[in-house]
Amino acid sequence: MSQDSLAARRRALITLAACVLPDTALAGPASDRSWPTRPIRLVVPFPAGSSPDLIARLLTEKLAVALGQPVVVENRPGAGGNIGTGVVARAAPDGYTLVLTINGPLVTAPTLSRHLGYDPVRQLAPVSLVATSPNVLVVDARLPVHNVREFVALAKSRPGELNYGSVGNGSAAHLAMEQLKAAAGIDLQHVPYPGFAQITTAMVGGQVQAGFMVPAIAMPLVTAGKLRIIAVTTSGRTSLLPAVPTVAESGYPGFEAISWQALLAPAGTPAPVIDRLYRELVAIIGSEDVRARMRAQYFVPAGTAPASLRQTMASEKVRWDKVIRVAGVQAE
């Protein structure tokens, strides 16, 4: 096929597929419309039972039907999601290896680690933002605080005495609290843990007094009266927890710290493959049962175009690079 014929065919495909975007239009030949012809591997760089794992398994059962091939979840945890994300960044760009990951490995990891081993901008092709979630600021229910103002006042009266937990230096929970510390002028002690299970155990045991986490983790202990939610981290109140005030409205305008999950492929994956993945995924996320199941796990269904996800990654990097610089955060 001549170059002119190939270009004409590509333009025709782009015209027919409304969701095709400029950054994917040059990624591969139109003949890749035959994809897929064999099972697809979806890497989740977190353990089984984690929020990304639950979302991945919710999507794959429908994605397999839509694509006509099995979509197999492969858990590759480690280094805050960087190991599994790196595996996909270095994989063959043939549409048979994908990653569903969170913001950390895509946004903050390049700033925090000089030896990351992959570049999410150059080596990964965005497919879609899958879901977002507020973080919630929770405290030990025995602590005499019921809102951010009281929490800040207590922290100022006991500088350096209150502990907060996170799942490691540079994690979303760590950076969210560092953002609040800087905004409120408070001194808290950071205590890193391997996972949120250990954090919640430490909070119930009284070793840690506060922390940021997603509602899906916090709510069982909130319902049991062990923890108390005092704020959410969305810019405005969230429909998931409409009665809970935001940190921003509690005296810290501009405060925002959202968790999100996204689907990506290795850079160079053919445009028709990216486009089909995007179209099928958006249809799945838009289905009533999937949306209900996501919201039951305290996630807001998304489903955005690849270019929108790329822009989200860029804007989030600017936001969190500033927090990392001001707080002097370094990776472990």
Task: Tell me about this structure.
- The protein has 332 residues and is an alpha/beta fold.
- It has two domains: 3-133 and 259-327, D-Maltodextrin-Binding Protein, domain 2 (3-Layer(aba) Sandwich), CATH 3.40.190; 136-250, D-Maltodextrin-Binding Protein, domain 2.
- Helix content is 42%, strand content 18%.
- The protein contains 13 helices and eleven strands.
- It has helices at residues 3-16, 51-67, 82-89, 103-107, 109-112, 120-123, 148-157, 172-184, 196-205, 215-223, 271-286, 288-296, 306-327, and strands at residues 40-44, 71-75, 97-102, 124-134, 136-140, 163-166, 189-192, 210-213, 227-232, 258-266, 300-301.
- The strands form two sheets. The chain has a six-stranded mixed beta sheet, sandwiched between helices. Strands 7-6-8-5-9 form a five-stranded mixed beta sheet.
- Helix 2 packs across helix 11 (271-286) and helix 8 (172-184) crosses helix 13.
- It starts with a helix and ends in a 5-residue tail after the last helix.
- 46% of the residues are buried.
